[in-house]
Design goal:
The complex is a heterodimer of chains A (333) and B (341). Chain A is α/β, with parallel strands linked by helices and 333 residues long. Chain A has helices at 3-9, 64-71, 94-103, 121-132, 138-151, 168-180, 198-215, 226-232, 250-255, 260-268, and strands spanning 13-28, 33-49, 53-57, 79-84, 87-88, 104-107, 186-190, 218-222, 235-240, 243-249, 319-322, 325-327. The chains are: A alpha/beta (333), B alpha/beta (341). Bound molecules: adenosine-5'-triphosphate (2 copies) and magnesium ion (MG) (2 copies). Chain B: It is found in: Cell membrane.
Chain lengths: 333, 341
């Protein structure tokens, strides 16, 4: 497949997330009244084109999983909108939500926790099919599941085995087979390889890439490991404290990051082509503020080496600073 | 300087010779570490890499003599610390050097901090064990140590409990405890794996600082090749309880030799390079109880395996100056032209 051909087919957005917010109430006191809010996701904007992989990176607690769960409507967003396949799905319910969930599937971090170890693999993978196609013949379903198992690189006899009989990497393959069962358009993969040993990690990453081509999938790929995200993604969104601070093509994020946080993040990743040499590194001071009590203005201003006075009062919005590179920082206003 | 002191100063800081550590599984002993030899010099960082379960932690626990009692034991080999054979030390003798001359940062910070004592109490305990300090001096010292590892509000944090701290902060407390007595040798078992990269960068920088100041030797266990490249002088690659390759850090990256090393390095995505497809290693590591006793342990997964690989056990041999590898492809008695590369 040539690159240009790829590009021209990737112009239509499959997903558009606009100013999405997810605030969790904090209850306290005798009457369990709401005494505050955890602003886990606090104004996230990005879009994903058909067939594309958008990576979402950021440090622990910055709101990556919450963003994924809100898109899938496992959580009800507090504000903002989610447009999927030209449909506003932010507030849909009932049958409509059920239909959407057929098209958006999730692969989770922990293959141990997300599968029932006492269930037969065949049942785990066919469960979503049974759910949506009640009248499907047993035979036909089994054939489909066998084919899925084959596609994700599991032996056919896996069908009759139990999840607990498999290794971590194999369980993640089971999870992927289940996610594929309904032929979704979008897969949200939340740290799909973080629990795996490196030699197994590469198998799962390769598999996800092969499946994307074969099934024409679009991915939202969430991980905290920048090297993994860069390997998998076309574009990358960088999150900090509930906000997307920069979205760009992966090469721009790596070679020419514009937001001071992205710059610090990239400079912190140790470079395997750099032996023993001291590298200029932007070392951030202090800890990440609590999402319960985020700083005013720019969420990063308390640790930003380039912060100015006005950064504590004005919250910068994402703006296209270079073609395709969106940054939320006053420096580029 | 007396003669014995002179020879002591010349001896490497840590010398491990033919170490075999076994675990008793259903009444039988199986070697989790099987004939491992290496040295660590003062002021040097030796990295250890290898797949999960290859024996990195067990090797470190053996050096520290912290193996689970009654289950794991050193079966064979010698551990020399500062020129002195320590594997026969009793508990009391070990207690004198452990924490003071050699210290360890454990893989899981939460299990190694005691939840019922304050952070300050736990650091002060280490200090009291090895130095004569007043209560106040110990308290001041622990606040100092906490700020040294980059903990904000150190004077307040000393009175808090482990569960009140974030994972990154707990890991920093562990490091503060490990460096409290300025040890000559630090064994750090995945010290930054649970941390975000920006915190990891702070911590690695801090370790580097202490190391150059005190001429400390470090054994750094990590799966992160970037960390290896930037922090280590030498690297040991382990597979299934054995060392398969040992070399300086630059040779590891520019001319890896063992087929396992090559595959492992190719299977990890790198930020600085674009790879179309990652390398994979087929199959799995044999379990401890099913480990082949003859031949190369990687043979069943090795794309370059030859029939004799399951019959002849490869020895770790110097292939180029300072670059050792255990693979028949490189053994001089088994010249296999055309298969190298
Ligand atoms: N159900 C909930 N109730 C209250 N707070 C929550 C809830 N879920 C998440 N949070 C908080 O929201 C913030 C974002 O959490 P989230 O799990 O989205 O982060 P993340 O970026 O996925 O982190 P990680 O890399 O550790 O997985 C955190 O501060 C978390 O404690
Ligand atoms: N307490 C124990 N009892 C029995 N076997 C053990 C015990 N601890 C470790 N082992 C075995 O010894 C081998 C080496 O384990 P070790 O913890 O050293 O691996 P590792 O290289 O540190 O792996 P990781 O990268 O996952 O930390 C493994 O096969 C493991 O199952
Ligand atoms: Mg998460
Ligand atoms: Mg270990």
């Amino acid at each position: 497949m040539s690159i240009t051909e790829n590009k021209s087919t990737k112009t239509q957005n499959l997903l558009e997330v606009k100013d999405l917010k997810m605030h969790f109430p904090v209850k306290g006191g005798f009457f369990r009244r709401t005494i505050g809010n955890v602003k886990a996701v606090d104004g996230v904007t990005f879009d994903i084109k058909k067939g594309e992989t958008l990576g979402l990176v950021g440090e622990s607690g910055c709101g990556k999983s919450t963003t994924g769960r809100s898109i899938l409507r496992l959580l009800n967003p507090s504000a903002g909108s989610v447009i999927f396949d030209d449909q506003d799905i932010t507030n849909v319910n009932g049958k409509k939500l059920r239909d959407i969930r057929k098209d958006i599937q999730m692969v989770f971090q922990d293959p141990y926790a997300s599968l029932n170890p006492m269930q037969m693999v065949g049942n785990i993978v066919s469960e979503p099919i049974k759910n949506y196609y009640k009248n499907k013949k047993e035979e036909e379903m089994k054939e489909e599941v066998m084919e899925l198992l084959n596609k994700v690189g599991l032996p056919e006899d896996a069908y009759y085995k139990y999840a607990h009989e498999f290794s971590g990497g194999q369980r993640q393959r089971i999870g992927i087979a289940r996610a594929l069962a309904l032929r979704p358009k979008l897969i949200i993969a939340d740290e799909p390889v973080s629990a795996l040993d490196v030699s197994v990690q590469s198998q799962v990453l390769n598999l996800l890439n092969e499946l994307q081509d074969e099934f024409d999938l679009t991915y939202l790929f969430i991980a905290h490991d920048l090297s993994v995200v860069k390997h998998m993604s076309d574009r990358i969104g960088v999150m900090y404290l509930g906000n997307v601070v920069e979205v760009a093509d992966k090469h721009s994020i790596y070679k020419d990051p514009l937001h001071p946080y992205t710059q610090a993040l990239i400079s912190a990743v140790p470079d395997a082509s750099n032996f023993g040499q001291k590298r200029e590194r932007i070392v951030l001071q202090g800890d990440v503020p609590s999402p319960e009590n985020p700083p005013s203005g720019c969420p990063f201003h308390t640790r930003c080496p380039k912060a100015m006075d006005k950064c504590s009062s004005i919250k910068p919005q994402l703006k296209e600073v270079k073609p395709g590179q969106h940054v939320a920082c006053i420096l580029y206003d | 300087m007396s003669k014995s002191e002179q020879s002591k100063a010349k001896a490497p800081l840590l010398e491990v010779k033919g170490l075999e550590t076994s675990f008793s599984i259903e009444g039988k002993d199986y070697n989790a570490v099987d004939g491992v030899s290496f040295t660590v010099d003062r002021g040097k960082v030796v990295g250890i890499v290898g797949e999960s379960g290859c024996g990195k932690s067990v090797m470190s626990l053996s050096v520290m003599q912290l193996l689970p009692k009654g289950i794991g034991k050193i079966r064979n080999g010698e551990v020399l610390f500062d020129g002195e054979e320590i594997q026969s030390f009793n508990e009391k003798q070990m207690n004198q050097i452990r924490g003071k001359d050699m210290a360890m940062i454990f893989q899981e910070p939460m299990t190694s901090l005691n939840p019922v004592f304050t952070i300050g109490y736990q650091i002060e305990e280490v200090l009291h064990n090895h130095f004569k300090l007043s209560k106040k001096e110990a308290r001041n010292k622990s606040v100092q140590l906490l700020s040294a590892v980059g903990i904000p509000r150190a004077a307040k944090i000393v009175d808090e409990y482990p569960h009140q701290l974030s994972g990154g902060m707990r890991q920093r407390v562990m490091i503060a405890m490990a460096i409290a007595c300025q040890p000559k040798l630090l064994i750090a078992d995945e010290p930054t794996t649970a941390l975000d990269v920006t915190v990891q960068a702070q911590i690695l920088e801090l370790l580097k600082d202490i190391q150059t100041k005190n001429d400390m030797g470090i054994v750094l266990i990590t799966h992160d090749l970037g960390v290896v490249a930037e922090s280590c002088d030498e690297v040991i690659v382990m597979y299934a309880g054995k060392i398969v390759e040992k070399t300086d850090v630059e040779s590891l990256f520019t001319k890896p030799k063992h087929p396992y090393t090559k595959l492992m390095m190719g299977s990890i995505p790198r930020l600085e390079e674009d790879t179309e497809k990652l390398e994979t290693i087929k199959g799995i590591v044999p379990s401890l109880t099913k480990m082949p006793q003859v031949g190369c342990r990687f043979a069943n997964r090795c794309p370059k395996a030859m029939p004799e690989c399951t019959e002849i056990t490869p020895q770790l041999e110097e292939n180029e100056q300072g670059h050792e590898v255990a693979c028949l492809l490189y053994e001089t008695s088994h010249p296999k032209e055309g298969v190298l590369g």
